[in-house]
Amino acid sequence: MERDDSGFSDFLHAWDELMGAVVRARSRGASGGDNGLTLPQALFLGIVRDLERPTVGAVAAAAGVASPTATRMLQHLERKGMVHRHRAEDDERVTLIALTPRGDRAEREWWERVRGHQRRLFSAIPTELRPRLIGMLHDMRQVIDDL
After folding, report:
1. Where do the HTH marR-type domain residues begin and end (predicted)?
2. CB 42 within 8 Å of CB 57
């Protein structure tokens, strides 16, 4: 069976550019603002904010990384003054993570900047194409999860 590869090389080029942009976003600090958060740091801060009982293990599980990876990230965020680690009152073997006021502010400001960029992009997309694009983004996420 012969496949129709019309436009496939253009698709591959666009895909590679998108993946490259994601990799670069993961490794650099946010432009603007002085908190200098990277994408993974902002995601970790959001996870800490959202978890009811944010332990290192719970943060690692939510982020989809190993506990040692989460520990290193959280230690780095603690050195930056973004999180505070403390022993749980009900079980001293458990270390809980909490956002500091600086971490709370940095995470919110980071997402405000990102959401502003996303809003401008979304506004530029013709209304009739938005549902199709949203479906395609979900499909792309599934492909990336399956890689």
Report:
1. 1-142
2. no
Residue type, 25: A
**Cβ-contact 82, 89 below 8 angstroms:** no
pLDDT digits (tens, 9 = 90+) for 55-81: 999 999 999 999 999 999 999 999 999
Domains of the chain with bracketed CATH: 37-146 (1.10.10.10)
* CB 56 within 8 Å of CB 68: no
Q: Which two tokens stand for residue 54?
A: 């944010």
With b for 16 or more beta-carbon neighbours within 10 A and e for fewer, the 53-90 pattern comes to ebbbebbbebbebeeeebbebbeebeebebbebeeeee
pTM for this prediction: 0.78
Integer Cα distance of 138 and 8 in angstroms: 20
